[in-house]
Design brief:
The complex is a heterodimer of chains A (121) and B (168).
Chain A: E1 2-7, H1 11-23, E2 28-34, H2 37-45, E3 52-55, H3 64-73, E4 80-84, H4 90-98, E5 102-105, H5 110-117
Parallel strand pairs in A: 1-2, 1-3, 3-4, 4-5
Chain B: H1 5-10, H2 15-34, E1 39-40, E2 50-63, E3 65-74, H3 75-86, H4 95-118, E4 123-125, E5 129-137, E6 146-153, E7 156-166
Antiparallel strand pairs in B: 1-6, 2-3, 2-4, 2-5, 3-7, 6-7
Helix pairs in contact in B: 2-4, 3-4
The chains are: A alpha/beta (121), B alpha+beta (168).
Amino acid sequence: MANILIVDDSSTMRKIISRSLRQAGLTVDEIFEAGDGIEGLGVLASGKKIDLILSDINMPNMDGLEFIKNVRANGNNVPIVMITTEGGDEIIKEAISSGASDSIKKPFTPDQLQEKLGGLI
Amino acid sequence: MSLNAEFAATACLTEEQLAKYIIDSTREVFSTMVMMDPSDDLPLIEPINRFKCSITGMVGFAGTYSGVISIHCPVSLALKITSSMLGMECDEVNDDLNDAIGEIANMLGGSVKLVLSKGGLDVKLSIPTVISGEDYTVNSLSDIDCVVIPFNLDGEKFLVGLTLKKED
């Protein structure tokens, strides 16, 4: 069972992702939520065991790219998958080069989550 | 009301192609994220700027072209959309409603950006903005350079509009 951290400034999207993870039949234990990169780093710093991070890119305060860089700078190698509207763009290449494992474009289906995340958790 | 010829030529898309892309993107967002299936109508001939008892979600573009993609929706329909998205009853204008409509605008913005990027344009997206009220007016950069598609859903209508302007 995996603990997952969802980082997205949209509370609606966090709820949809949570629901879709369970609909996809992924083995999810606890789901933690953060509204931006700063909050996400706070969850990680609290010592909670996180097995996978799903992060948006376009967020206020600290965007997804800065968030990835901070996570990796802290020596944390947890898989990070971007879930973003910014699909098929240079920004995805930057996210991957910064340490993201993969990306999923919004909108998505539970099947697409299963396909992308099944091998990570 | 149409898309300016300069944009259409640069992005290698006709107005009809872009209208179809807006329709396809809207239907995809609604079928996968909202769990509702709207049907589209012909693009509007005359612009609509004034809205009553409605909510508007907008995402701006910046770069080679500036512009806005927007969704305008009666509050009564927005409540149904939000309830379906969240899987829980939403019966008043609140943060959940604003967030849901803003996120729909955000996903539509991402889809349109993908089209513009395929056309070789450098475009950045803003954070979504949402406004609502009993009687308000939204003025675009230009009513000449836009495409607005009406959609029918659950006996009501909402609009998705795209306005673009070339930066000097």
